[in-house]
Structure formats: C-alpha cells, structure tokens
Amino acid sequence: MPQCSKVLFVIMDQFRADCINGALADHIDLPNIQAFRKEAVTFAKHYSVTNPCGPSRASILTGRYAMNHRSVRNGTPLSDGITNIALEARKSGYDPILYGYTDTSLDPRNRHPNDPVLKSEENVLPGFREVLEMRLMESYPWRAYLNSKGYDLPDYAHFYDAISPDPSRAARPDDPPFYKAEDSDTAFLTNALLHDLSVRTDQDWFALATYIRPHPPLVAPAPYNKMYDPNTLPMPPRLPTQDQQVAVHPFMAAAIDKPSVNSIVRGVAALDNENNHDVQQLRAIYLGLATEVDAHFGRIISFLKETGQYDDTLVVLVADHGETLGDHHLWGKQNTYEAAFHIPLIIRDPNNAAQHGTTVQAFTESIDVTPTILDLIGQRIPTGMDGVSLRPFLEGKTPENWRDCVHMELDFSEPNEMTKWQEATGVSTHEANLAILREERFKLVHFNGDLPPMLFDLVSDPHELNDLAGDASHAPTLLRLTRKLLNHRMKHADRTLTDVRITSKGAVGFTP
To answer: Is 380 helix (H, G, I), strand (E, B) or coil?
Structure first.
C-alpha cells in the first residue's frame, strides 16, 4: 500500500468529544469538522490517557502511558532518553515543523543550570523545529503581530480579559477581548501555517499545528462570544448542590476549587458556580471558541484541496484532553470524570477512501496516535511505545484481541508545594495519584494513599452520579476491576529493553 507523503497533525486544547458526537453536538455548529468526518474515520471512544496539557501531550507524542514517560505534571521534565514522533519521523526523512507548542519540560540533567529552557515548562519536544512559537504563557510572535496592527497592548497577563464595550458598565463574561477575530491567536496560527505551507506544495512535509483554544481563559472575539444562547443549552449533569459533590469523595473538595469557576474567566465580577445563568454563559463561550477553531481548521482543509495536496496528506485531528465544563460542578480537566478524558480523534488516510465516513466504536487511547502516524509513513514503531497502530481500523479491519477497556492516570501533587488535593486528602507527594480503568459498562477509579475507590455503572448511570464502591453487592466487580487494573499496569511496565538479551553473540532481539 502506498504511504502518505505529507502529514498534517492538528491538536486542539481541552476539546470535549461530545461537541462532535454526543450531548453538546446538537447545540454547536462545527460545519468543517463534521464535513471532515464524512471524508475520514471517526474514533468515537477515544480517550486521553492522562492530563493536564504537558503530560497529555507527552503521552500523545511519545506513545507512552504517563506511568512510563513520567512527565506526570506540567513542569515535570520529560527524559531525554525517550523517543517521540518527531525523532522517529526524521528517520523517514521528514523535518517535523511545529506551529504552536508541545508543552515539553526539558530534562535538566544534560543542560547547564543557567540555560533559559529550564525556566519554562513550555519548551519544544526534541525533534521538532519550532517555526511559530504560540505558547499560552508567552506567544511573542502573536503579541508582536498585534502591536504591528496598531493595538494598544495590555500587559500580557490581561490579554485574555473580557473588555466592556460600554465604559459605563463592568465587563461581562460574554464581552470580547481587545483583539478582533481576524487577529485572534487561532487566526494568527492558521495564517502562519498556510503562509508557510503555500511554498511547500511540491515537497513532502510533516506539520504539527496546536491550537490553544478552546482552553480557558474563556473569552472569545466577536461573533464567537455571543454565537450561542446560554438559555438553549442543556444543563451540565451534576448533583443538586456543590456541597453534595464535595461529599462524594475526599478528592472532590479540592477538585471543586481547582480550577474554580472564577479562575477560567478574567476581567469580570465574581461568578457563582451554582448560578445556572453563570454556568451556562461560560459553556456558551466555550462552544463559541470551539466553533472558531472549526472555522480555521476548515481553512486548512480548503487549502489542501485547492492546492491538490488533500489526497497526498494524512490528516489527524485530535484533542490533548477534555474539559468538564460545569459537569459535577467542576471545571477544567484534573478530575476523574468522563468529560475530562473523552476526546475526539478523526483520521483521514487518503489511501483508504473506502472507509471514509465511517465510525469506529472500539476503545482507543491517545498513545495510539503516534504509532498510527509512524505506521502510515512507513516508519517502524519503537518497542518502548505502549500505543498500538490504528491502521487496521482505517483499512476496515478489527484487530484480534483488541482492548476492551481504556487506562487513564492523574497525578495531583507538586514536588515544591502542597497542593489543594493533598491538603484535602492528606496524601504524600508520591501517593497523590490515581488510575482509572474504564470498560464498556463499569468504570473503576483507584486512588493511591489508601483513599477509597470509586465505581460507576455507566449503563445505568452514564453521568457518573452514583458511586457504587461502597455497595456490598458490587464488591465482586470492584475486586475484578482492581485486579484487572493491576494486571494492565504490570503488563505495560516499560519494556524498551526487556525483550533484549545480551549474549556471547551480541544483543539478541535488539533493533537499532
């Protein structure tokens, strides 16, 4: 089978799967992504294996579970000894170019303490060539562009503030920022990508484009800020009160507060997490930001078609992790619930047109993305990667003995300070973590530090509102899933060299 000669890899930040296929899909307009689905394969049960941004991208780009790459927090270094998609793609002759960010914290062991890369958690994954820096904490090219356009730039800490168009009233969450939609971070990144690719049409290329949006702060330029009526949106699934959610588990007391509803929107008066209007207004702004990403993704697809490259290009669209968006009274992604981990994955392999428009219902994990891309460009998948190529699904086949569950992890400590989660749960730094095993019906959340587990029946309780872990009638299921989780982790312990043996004849089983 012919291999793809061009690769477009797009990562959206904090994009919920149900915006594309699920509870919110009927309430959001994503015409370009929905059209793309008809020309590609949708993986409906795709999950990020960890979060937040740094760990999730480390897993996507290395093909490894967090328990193996160990970059488990934003700011935790990724070992220099771990290979990744860019380093492997270089072996196939590609020069992987980056538009955006990989959120990689670099290994300090091989760098001088004064090296400035050790002062930022938003560095570039080795192997990528950063063509456009678009980092949430920096974004200097975008700031310089806005300056050249004549904007009166605020301090960068206030770039994402909502600005009242009426000086006589305070800003509201659905007020726009100081920049126009044509000059937004999303538009700027897309413009740069299309500008550069316009002179590469006659060559092979590998481009990673990473959009910051719809990641908070939740502020959107017009018309996206008022595109959706909060009153028409479904309410998030949640217990009647925030206090009831806190009582679910010791972990939840901190989860309610990190991030709080007031930390994801800037420049406005305090909001109330139990006020339906406040909650729905923020959900509406999030949907507007998602639609903005859709509009610019559509520009890229149009460019590929207009330049005759569409049928030579492997296109992968995915998110790094999800967003709780008020579900369970929670915001962000550092929690245990479905919305934080369930993410979109859509792949267009031009060499398998017969499968375009289909949907795969098998469980897939974010660690599968890199092995899939490497497989489709003809590059060997390194032994140490935990993920599996999804190529058979793209060819209309279901692999034998495919996984019947997904495995997810979350670390909620910091090495330099006590976190709110640790204060709420009383666990030490090395105990402040959890692992999740999600089957079709049952979902186990296992906490370290002797904290109680959580168990949900997703058939009778799809919104995870009724924890069954303390129900004696479900004790056999709890035990079965706990053993299965342990088996899974033991099976997937790092095996980079475990299948190699040094003998008198040399290294057996080793492939350079």
So the answer is: coil
**Three-state SS string across 37-78, please?**
HCCCEEEEEEECCECCHHHHHHHHHHCCCHHHHCCCCCCCCE
Q: What is the pTM of this model?
A: 0.97
Alpha-carbon gap, residue 15 to 469, rounded angstroms: 30
Find the length of the chain: 512
The b/e string for 135-174 (b: 16+ C-beta within 10 A; e otherwise) is bbeebeebbebbeeeeeeeeeeeebbbbeeeeeeeebbbb
Q: Is the pLDDT of residue 1 over 60?
A: no
CA distances for 406 relative to 137, 373, 401, 474, angstroms:
32, 20, 14, 20
Bridge partners for 445 per DSSP = 436, 454
- Distance (Å, whole) CA 16 – CA 414: 26
Measured between alpha carbons, how far is residue 306 from residues 194, 296, 310 in Å?
A: 12, 15, 8
Instruction: Identify the active-site residue in 4, 19, 53, 405.
Output: 53
Q: Domains along the chain?
A: 6-508 (3.40.720.10)
Mean pLDDT within 124-143: 97
Does the annotation count 53 as an active-site position? yes
What would the pLDDT profile of 76-132 be if each residue is shown by its tens digit?
999 999 999 999 999 999 999 999 999 999 999 999 999 999 999 999 999 999 999
- Is beta strand 41-47 parallel, antiparallel or unpaired with respect to 345-348? antiparallel
The dihedral built from the CA positions of residue 328, 256, 286 and 45, taken in this order, carries a sign that is negative
Q: Which residues contact 180 (CB under 8 A, 6 or more apart)?
A: 221, 222
Statement: residue 2 has pLDDT above 90: no
Residue 300, CA atoms < 13 Å, CB-side half-sphere: 31
Take residue 414 and report the two structure tokens written for it.
């910091």
Bridge partners, residue 342, by sequence: 47
The span from the first CA to the last CA of the chain, in angstroms, equals 25
Average pLDDT, the chain: 97
The residue type found at 443 is K
Residue type at 50 in one-letter notation: T
